[in-house]
Amino acid sequence: xxxxxxxxxxxxxxxxxxxxxxxxxxxxxxxxxxxxxxxxxxxxxxxxxxxxxxxxxxxxxxxxxxxxxxxxxxxxxxxxxxxxxxxxxxxxxxxxxxxxxxxxxxxxxxxxxxxxxxxxxxxxxxxxxxxxxxxxxxxxxxxxxxxxxxxxxxxxxxxxxxxxxxxxxxxxxxxxxxxxxxxxxxxxxxxxxxxxxxxxxxxxxxxxxxxxxxxxxxxxxxxxxxxxxxxxxxxxxxxxxxxxxxxxxxxxxxxxxxxxxxxxxxxxxxxxxxxxxxxxxxxxxxxxxxxxxxx
Length: 295
Description:
rod-shaped; CATH 3.30.1330.60; 3 domains
């Protein structure tokens, strides 16, 4: 029984650790991606229109204050005559205009930000690496909006770091994003943490019970029953069946009646009583050994 409980507690602890530790950072790389050298055409027009619809619907439900919606434009590093800063600004302006067409007032937007060429989502070494950098980021109160987050009622909280000498009008770039619930402030991380704490407390209680059972004192009745069987210089003590049963029952009572394997209690009783009398200098003979000798 105790082994099963320990296995259950270990399982709960592992699940709690995995749940609590799975606070991984998430980046969305397929969101409002533009075609190369274009500020008004997306890689996938149908998908981009759906993404813009979802962003507009979400922003209208949030009732933002004027100037609280920010749009950052980005471009991939390319060798051509197109200025990446201007291109990224035009992309940001295009998205602002598209959102205004979907019902958002113009005064809700801050001035579009042009970040120029970046390598935040791709490596810029080939077309596959450049494509994710041709994008915009839409922020509401410093929170980046993503399509996956909008569909789940979530938002992505972002952090920023200063990049000295980046050469762009705005020397800030996106560092990381972490998904969190935007519709509720309840700290859900408390649940797995509480489960982990409960499992640890239960494990400590079980360990303390096991120690008490293993090292419990021999009852006074047992010490009073020391009677040498053979009057010789070597003390011998016969451990009778009744004494073993009595001590096994006391082990049961120490658990406040918590049922367990009676056979295991019997073996614990034999081991602990034998060790007790041997510490007193007796040679312990079990009652069934005496019966064998008599036979």
